[in-house]
Amino acid sequence: MDVVIDGIKYELSTTDRCAAVLCNEYSGRVVIPSHVQYDAVLYDVTAVSEKAFAASSVTEVCIGDEVRAIGADAFRDCEALHNVVFGNKLLLMGAGAFAGCTALKCICLPDNLISVERSLFDSCTSLESVTLGDSIESIGEYAFCGCSSLEQIVLPESTTTIEGWAFRDCSKLKSVFLPVSLCEIKRGAFWGCSSFSSFDIPVTINRIEQGVFANCTSLQHVTIPDTVLDVGYGAFYNCSSLCEIVLPSSVQSVGEQAFRSCSSLQRICVMGEVPPMCGGEIADAAVYLSAALYVPAGCVGEYGFARIWERFGNVEEV
Predict the structure, then answer these.
(1) Which H helix or E strand runs over 300?
(2) What is the C-alpha to C-alpha distance for residues 235 and 187, in angstroms, rounded to an integer?
(3) What CATH number is given to the structural domain containing 298?
(4) Which of 67, 117, 293, 295 is 20 to 30 A from residue 138's alpha carbon, by CA?
(5) Looking at the domain assignment, is residue 56 inside a domain?
């Protein structure tokens, strides 16, 4: 049954005595309690339903300690929302729950959460500070996409995966702490992070996925560990400030357009005695003509006959 108590609409379950917050006309500061009483029966408020507050005029939300789930798009496009306090039993926030909350500046996620779901804070353009709980295992697709005010983020030691486009177009992002637990950085994860000047890829990563650093136009230095086997399609596309790249001997393949539009690239060091396979043109014609390709001693001939590598006009031994 649906009831309204103190301006908040609930769906009450008489079987388990739980309540879920439903869509209603909400504005200003909203306090979601841990319990509500109706007809002398006490109900635990355990959920906020999908789209419950979407596009409303709420400015602040305090979520009770019994709330365990916040539904998808629950607060999407609440453009006046600038402060959210989460309860300590929260286990799940659905996709896009706070997407488009353009006034939100600071967020602190509780420790019980194990994932930052898809598009959770997509287009939160004022978001400057994010504190992730200690149990976060994955950062979902587009989770922080378009958070153009975010300058740094620390991923906890529990994090194993950054999904595709997770930090796409975070144009002010300069610093990301990546834990040793991290195993995967999916395609486009840092696409358009145009304030990166350097990036150290963790030794736990074995593949640089498609477009991971594409359009990181300020990126000057990147460290690729000798655990990386493949550099994906367009991995460093339009990294126009990148002047040098070192591919360790572990790299077996380089994807098409991996260094396309890297107009400052002057030095490429490939440490493998066997030339990595190339899926197609890896760079612009100007790079083939002007950049120096450094290869292991005695391997100039090998690279001179290898597909794509043969196009470099200046090949020298390391």
Answers:
(1) helix 300-304
(2) 8
(3) 3.80.10.10
(4) 67
(5) no
pLDDT tens, residue by residue, 220-243: 999 999 999 999 999 999 999 999
Burial status of residue 3 (CB atoms within 10 A of its CB: 0-12, 13-18, 19 or more):
middle
Number of alpha carbons in the 13 Å side-chain half-sphere of residue 263: 7
Residue 196, pLDDT score: 96
pTM: 0.95
The number of beta carbons lying within 10 Å of the beta carbon of residue 31 is: 13
Say how many C-beta atoms besides its own lie within 10 A of residue 112's C-beta. 16
In a domain, 131, yes or no: no
**4 beta partners:** 9
C-beta separation of 101 from 78 below 8 A:
yes
Give the three-state DSSP class for 194.
coil
Distance of alpha carbon 216 from alpha carbon 192, whole angstroms: 5
Helix, strand or coil, per DSSP, at residue 162: strand
With a CB cutoff of 8 Å and minimum separation 6, the contacts of 38 are 3, 5, 12
